[in-house]
Amino acid sequence: DNGEQVLVDVEDKTNKEITEHIRKILGKSKETLEKEEKERKKLSPPATFGPKKYHLRECMCEIEGQVPCPAVVPLPKEMRGKYKAAFKKEA
């Protein structure tokens, strides 16, 4: 934060050891990270969806009463854009 240089001896250390050492010196503790993640999840309302990292649900189809994912269950023809466009052309 204040521009101070940090020298780290990396000779004869593995990638994991170097990463852990730097995280221990410069990073936040595991407890702090876990606490921040819990707070972030508490702030997120249950109605939102997105990556599991940030939200409780990954897809809208996981909510009860919603239309299932088209990748899993095919949509009815009436709900598809191609069908609607073809139907409009006929009429």
From TrEMBL:
Localization, UniProt: Mitochondrion
Organism domain of life: Eukaryota
A GO cellular-component term linked to this record: ribosome
Keywords: Mitochondrion, Ribonucleoprotein, Ribosomal protein
Gene Ontology terms for molecular function: structural constituent of ribosome
InterPro entries reported in the protein's UniProt record: Ribosomal_mS25/mL61
PANTHER family for this protein: MITOCHONDRIAL RIBOSOMAL PROTEIN S25, SMALL RIBOSOMAL SUBUNIT PROTEIN MS25
UniProt-recorded name of the protein: RT25 protein
Organism of derivation: Pterocles gutturalis (yellow-throated sandgrouse)
